[in-house]
Design brief:
The protein is mainly alpha-helical and 133 residues long. It has one domain. Helix content is 82%, strand content 0%. It contains 4 helices and no strands. The chain has helices at 2-28, 36-62, 67-96, 104-128.
Length: 133
């Protein structure tokens, strides 16, 4: 029963981190890169990325019993990583697109961060199913 609660807590953290990532990245574009608001929003983005990947690691760590549990953990982690790729890709697309009221360098930095987050999730998707793990 406690495994179920930990995985449920991981899913709640995952949803909260996705919301924080989308809101912080959207607000990041309107600050100059040398303002304190930019630093705060960038810190929120980094914390959201850490929480996203910790929520992905939760089923991989907890579901390590028989073969069925291992496959369930891998599939759940794959679906969570797919969500990270989709949300980070959309945020990168929005950030790298031109908007008249946004700061150019802040927009590019936010888009680059989201793009790197999506690439890291793609790499993790490949690493999950490699043998020897």
């Amino acid at each position: 029963m406690s495994i179920f609660l930990f995985i449920l807590l991981g899913l709640l953290v995952y949803i909260a981190a996705l919301v924080v990532l989308t809101r912080a990245t959207a607000r990041l574009r309107y600050y100059r890169f040398d303002e304190a608001g930019f630093l705060g929003m960038a810190a929120l983005d980094i914390v959201a990325g850490i929480l996203l990947f910790s929520a992905v690691a939760t089923p991989l760590v907890l579901l390590t019993g028989n073969n069925v549990e291992i496959i369930e953990g891998h599939v759940l982690a794959l679906l969570l990583l797919l969500g990270v790729v989709l949300v980070a890709g959309v945020m990168a697309w929005r950030s790298l697109g031109w908007t008249p009221s946004s700061q150019t360098l802040s927009r590019l930095l936010g888009g680059l961060y989201c793009l790197l987050l999506a690439v890291a999730a793609l790499v993790c998707m490949v690493l999950i199913f490699l043998p020897g793990r």
